[in-house]
Structure formats: structure tokens, C-alpha cells
Amino acid sequence: MRRTPRDTEASARRVTRRALLMGAGMSAMVAALGARMRFLGVDQAAEFRLLAEENRINIRLIPPARGLIQDRNGKLIAGNEQNYRVTITREDAGKTDAEVEAVLHRLSHLIPMTKDDLASTMKDIKRNSAFVPIIVAERLDWHELSRISVNSPALPGVSPEVGLSRVYPRDIDFAHIVGYVGPVSDKDIAAQESPDPLLRIPKFQIGKIGVERWMEDTLRGSAGTKRIEVNALGRVMRELSREEGVKGRDLRLTIDADVQNFVQARLGDESAACVVMDVTNGDIIAAVSSPSFDPNLFVRGISQKDYSALTENDHRPLANKVVQGAYPPGSTFKMVTALAALAEGAIDENSTVRCNGYLEVSGRKFYCWKHSGHGKVDLKKSLAESCDVFYYDTCQKVGIDKIAEMGRKLGFGARADLPMSAISDGLMPDRDWKQARYKKEWLIGDTINASIGQGYVLATPLQLAVMAARIASGTEVEPRIIHSINDQPVPVPPAPSLGLEGAKLRAVQMAMFEVMNGQHGTGKGARIADETMQMCGKSGTAQVRNISSAERDSGVVSNDNLPWKQRDHALFVAFAPADNPRYAVSVVVEHGSSGSGVAGPIARDALLRAMTGDIPPLSAYPPSQRGRMETLLNALKLRLPDGSPPAPSKV
Amino acid sequence: MSFLEYRLKLAPTGFSKVFYINWALILVLTAIAAIGWLMLYSIAGGQMDVWALPQIKRYGLGMVILLAVAVVPIWFWRSMSGLAYALGMVLLLIVEFFGVVGMGAQRWIDLGFIRIQPSELMKVTLVMMLAAYYDWLPDKKVSKPLWVLLPVLLVVAPTILVLMQPNLGTSVMLVVAGGGVMFAAGVSLWYFAAVIAMVGGTVFAVIYSEGRPWQLLHDYQYKRIHTFLDPSADPLGAGYNIIQAKIALGSGGWGGKGFMQGTQSRLNFLPEKHTDFIFTTLGEEFGFVGAISLLALYTLVLVMLIWAAVQNKDRFSQLLIVGVAMNFFLYIAVNLSMVMGMAPVVGVPLPLLSYGGSATLVILVAFGLVQSAIVHRPR
Question: Which CATH superfamily is domain A57-253 in?
């Protein structure tokens, strides 16, 4: 449709009129923008320059208080303490690096600082933006702090502050479980997709290992902010506004700090691990790796000397053996073979095998630990006296795949879902595994080795405890360590049944009872006398070296005559009370030589400590051992009831 | 002589079109873009290939497109308006359902080699559509309610889609630019008065009702409004940018701290220092003189556009140029008010200065249309 020229003229005129009107409107806005530019850049320039150069408004993050970690009864494991520290801000300290260094140098006369400290602070300063306060020294006392305040005119850019720092009052008891916090590193930040602004605070503490690390998001909380005005010296003039952050959430662990402490003390200097578990719900009551270390050292910045001492110790104090150590389970694995054979119907509780001290399979002799032989052996006797030949024979009737299946059902070869670092999977080998790993056929000898927990089988102390708990409860109970978050209990899903016939499970439980309480039981020396608390258990002694054929002929060298590193590992799994199991325990003592002699008594004491809720009464021990136990228990360096460290021993 | 007759007889053809292009306008645009490249070079700490070089390449590509668009007759573009608008709507719908989420909002379609931001494209196609509509509509009907409702719907439909992304800045620009074209086309002032009164009344009612028994919104919604209007209430987010931006601008003073001398450390926390907040660097390094010079260049572009619209006798061309001018003005006004702390922070780039592909290309395409209108105007 075309307009008449007259219309076109008129409309074009109107558009022109209105376009000019809009142009006028735009001009007005442009004039306003120009005026604003003038206002900011000229009229207020002096003020803003002042803001930019002298009286600067800084927005500082307020780090939230980190969530507390408590034991199941609310005893403090990880808390926060006030920490007086001093920071330096580069842009306030001086224009050149030399000026900044001079300030630091003056500061080093007032507080203890080494040359290395100076150098590393200088490095931190250069790495960060000029306006970021860098922590120079922490944990100052009042004297040092006041010395700095008095000398402040000579120390531009230096300001004393008070902050919170992590502290572990029960130092070595929870080093492996709870771990420790440390200053955030560039690597930590790079690992996150959108890092929390808090992580940008120099030396902000985040969890490095253990619960502290794996529950970091729960514990950290979120930042608050404060707007502060600082003067040319970097001194805070006043706080303009403040918005508090959200405190991190508190964690309550399933661990009982007193049981943990008892077990830690009981393990002493051994290179060992012990786990106590509640078989009814999977609560880990104690999980101890020994020797341990003081996590507070790491929070405060560990010295090279202390660190070397930890890394060079052949008992590996830094490793959390509870989940990181994978050991051949030895005879503690026999329950798995037995249950697999029972479940498959390959044997029943009355089947017998004749033990002549060895079993010959395809031309090779597999020896029982007792070379003279056990004679006629049934299931009960096979566990009670730990006959190997019974299992050499039985395992061939079931086959490795069924044994591995039962092993996995009882918790072997599976990574526990716990907030701990470097958890090992252990190893539950079967035919497919060997084919995939070594490209070799599974041999009958492999089955025979596996049947008594040697060969390829590996298990962590935690997995051994889970096995004991599952045999005790007949359910697939899962270990757990977080009891509640901010007093909200973490729900425990009911554990599904193992699907074993009651009679078969009971046969194995009864055989484990026989281990401890039978006439010839290998664990007899570690039995509990009190009938209400009697235990079921199984010892294991795992070889860590190959026995040479020369030794086989001349008799195996006794452990006592071997260097520590070559001695057998001592293992023990147990649960109690026998008639109504409540707690399961596993103990691994590296190179402890004898499962029943070394690991067994520790397992007993741990169980008694958990069951009685106190130092075990002497009445629980067999009369002949009471004297010795009294000395042993009295010598334990336990914490005082308030968690403070035990009195130092006289050396 | 009608436009039809004109275009058959007198419009420039062939190579001679080149002489009719408004080269002065192109020169000013390039000068503005060059300031942008300088700033991008400075922000990257003296490196070309971080931001400056890609931006120069884009500008080069955009300029080729501009010239290509300019030599195509304006009546061809008018006939394409409906199609362009439809395409823009389809792309907006696609981004709504398949778009890439960037900076917390769904804005892009990723074609692999280029990311298209349909909301930017819509700014031009909407103006084309409205210009074509009023070119077609007989003058007498312009203020009839039904014929006012139709363009309102044309504006509201894409605006709703853009709002859902969510992209408040672009939504506002669509509404105001669309309104601008309608205003220029001669829609009765009463409609505008009514809309302004309604919006004003609603805003007043909402704000006035807070804390009263008949409060219109939830408390948390008010809280959001407050942080939006007063960014300093959210010092970790928008407020931080604003405070730092104001300090940077202010500390530039009259002459600025000099090229590459801006204390970037203070802007290190600005995630958008090379995009939406690029003006702060200019203000800090070249001071009030630099800032006002840029504003002068922008004003020159606007004056040239309005003049081109006034000179043109073709209704479609006039309205198109007014629409483009309106858009260009809105980019500048919204971005600068935001950076200078006069308006809340919404994501609107500074035209030709901010780093970014879609906006630059769309602006140059729009100027290509303007050039086409200039080249083919009835003489």
C-alpha cells in the first residue's frame, strides 16, 4: 500500500519532529552522564584519590568458625582456639620490595623469626596482590603483641589481629581418623571448579586429610564480610559494616574417645592397627593406628626435623594403617573358606578331614603349621586348632570363585565409604582377577594359598573388623564414622541379611567360641573368663616372606631369631559377648610374630574396654593372668577424664 | 514521486554506491573501536593476543559484513524484515530450550565455531520489524488501539523470552527501543503517558506497600529488590564491583594515571573488567579527559544517526535509523550509568569497546542497515 505524496510528506515531517525530540532526550541523558563523569573524576577526584591512596575502604572476609568435631559422647576432638597473629600488607608497608623487607627486618627483632621465615613471608607477599594482608607470624603471646603495638609507627603495614586456629586437644589419639587442617595451597584452589572466596584468604585453614578433609564442606561454613576503613599505615580505622558468616556445622563421630585412647595406649609402640565396631549398627567405636603423631604440629607448621623423624620412622606413624594397610589375613580368613564350603553344601559341620601335617596336591606338598599333624579334624577343631590341611582339602571342593564370592559378601576387596584418606581396597582374588592382572591361569595352588588367607588375599584391619561384625550379626553391616551433624543423627539404614542359614553361621560362631574357650583353642590365652562377656575369635599369623626350601627341610627359623622386618604379622579378629554379640574387633600387629600371643590379648582388652565402659575389671581375666594384667593396665598412660594428656612417664 | 518510481530511476547502482556510503560515520565507529583495543591491550597487561587481537579480527569481519549489508538495497532489507523477526524468535526459542548456560543465564547457542546470542540479534530484527510495520500501516491508523496493540505484542513476545533467560538488561533495551520506534512513528503521546503512569504507579505501590498490612510482595522479594537497587548491601557481589569501579574512575582524576598505569590490582576482583566494566579502566588511565572524549565520540555517532534519519524521506529508513540510534544510545546510557553507580548492575556491554563477539557483530550489522538506508535514500 502506497501513501499519497502528501501523506508521505506529512508523516516524514512528523517522524523528523519526533526523532529530533528523541535526540533532545538523548542529549539530556548524555549531559547527565557527562556531569556524572565530571563529578566522579573531577569534583570528587580528591576524595576518591584519598580513598584509593590513603583512606581506603577494604572489604575483608570474616572467616567462619570451623565446625567442631566431637566423639559420640560429645567430648571435644577438634576445636578452635584464639590465635593472636600479625599481618603485613605490601602496599601499606612500602613502595619498593626493599622498603617492605626493611619493615619485616625491624619486625624480626620484636618477635622470633628466622631468616627462612623472612624469606618465605617475602615470597608470600610477592605472590599476592598488594592489598592482601599476609600473615607473618601466628600464636603470639601478649608480650610480643604489645611490643608490636608500641612500635607500630616504625612498622607501616603491619597489624596485629586475632583469629581462630584449629586445635586438637586429644592430639595423637585422632591424628589418623580426624586428620588435620593446613593452609590452603594453590593446588587446593586449582582442584576446585569455583573456589569459595574464603580459600583466597592467605593461610586459610582447610582439611588436608581424614575427616577434616573429606567433611570439609560440612565443617567450613561460609564467609561473612566486613567493610573497614584503613588509614595510610594500613591500620584499621573503623569498621563500617559487618555481616556475620555462617559457622561450620559440628560433627559427632561414632568413636568413643575414651575407648580410642585406651586402645591407643594399649597398642603402645607397636606398629599396629585396631578397630572396634558395633556389630548392631556399624558404628566404629575405635579405629587406632599406631604409632601416631601429633596433628597440632601440622597445624602450626611442622619443622623439617620433626617431619623427617616421622617419615624416616620404619613404623610409619603417618600412615593410617586401619584403612591404608593391606595385610594377608592369614588364618583369620579361614571363616570365609568355611562359610563358603558350608553355604555350598561342600561340607557340613560334621565332615572330617585327616591331617597328617601336610597335603600333597599335584606333586607338591602343602604343609600344616603343625608338621606332626592334627589327626581327624572337623570344622570346630579346624578353627579351634587352626588346622591348615582341613582348608587345603575343603577349598578344593568349593573352588576359588565361591570363596571369593563369600569373601566379598563379608567385606573383603571392597572400599569402605568412609571420610578417610587413601583407603585401600584390599584384594579378594579370583580367576578373572588373575587373568586380568597377570594374564595367567588360576592354579590349584593359588586356591590352597587363598584358603588360609595367604597368597594374593589382602585385607585392611577395617575389613577384618567388618568381617567379624558380619559373622557376629549375620547381616551386611556397613562401617560408619559420622554419628550426627549439628546434632542431627545420620540415619543408619537397616543392614540386609547375609542370607546364610542360621545353623551354618552358628557352626562357625561356635567354632570361633571354641578357639577362645576350648581345651586346645589357639586363643585360649586371650580368653575372657567372665561368662557374661565371653568372646569368639580367631587368630592369624601371616607370613611376610617366602620360606626357602632349605628352611623347609631344616625347620622354619623361629620368629624371635629374625630381624623385626621379616617377622610374621600377628592378626586377630573377635566379637563378644558370645551369646549376644555387640562389639567386633580386629587387631593387626605388624611383625608381631604371633596372632594368638600378641594380637589376641589386645583384642580382648579392646573388647572388654568397649563392653564394660571402663578400664577392664580384673575379674574378667582368667585367675592365673590377673596379676600380670593388673601391672599392664596400671602402666597404661591414659588421658585424664577431661582429655588432658597423661603425666609424662619417667625415663 | 513515489519511492517505487524513485528506486527504478534514481537510486545509485553498481560501484557508485561506494561514494554514497557515510564514511565519516565509519571513521568515528572505528575510532571508538580502536580505543577499545587499546584498553583491552592494557587490561591484558600489555598482551595483544589475550583480548585485543581477537577483538580486532571480529571488528574486521564485522566491517566486511557492514559494507556487504550497506550495498544491498534498503527495500530488500525491508522485505526481509518479517523473515528476520521470525528467525530471531526461533533462535530465542532454541536458546530457551537448548542454549548454553553462561554466567548463570541461558544466552548462547553454540554452533561450534561461533556462539550466537539471539537476544542481541533481536535488538536489530525487532527494530526492522517495527519499521516495516509502520511503513506498511496507513498513517491514519497509527494511533488506533488495535494497530497499537499489534506492535506492542511484537515487542512483548521476544522480551518475555529474553526475561526468562534471565537477561534484564536486554529486556529493558528491547522494550525501550521498541517504544522509541513507535514514538517516532507517531503513536499518540497519550499511550506513552498511560504506560509511564501505569509503570510508575505499580512501582510506587510496590515500594509503598512494604511493611504495611497490604504488602504486595514477599519479604524475600523485597530483599532482592533492595540488593538490586543498592548493590553496596551485597559487598561480595555487585557492590564490590561498583565500589571498585567508582574508586578507579575517581582516582583517574583529570588526566588519568597514564596508559597501562592503572592499578589493576584493585580491579583484579572485577570478573568483567574486559567486558561490561571496561569503562573503568579508561577512566582510571585517561581520566576525565579520556572519558568525556569517548562520550563525545558516542554523541557524534548519535548526532550523525539522528541527522541521517531527519534527512531521509523514506519512512522505513527513517524509523530503522531512529531504532538503531535508540539501541546504540541505550547501550551507552545503561552501561555507563551502571559503571558509574547510577543504576543497578545489569549485563549490558559498552558498544564497540567491550570484549565480545555477538554485540560487536550485531552493532556493525545494524550500522550496515543504516548505511544501506543512507546509500539508497530518495534524493
Answer: Penicillin-binding protein 2a (Domain 2) (3.90.1310.10)
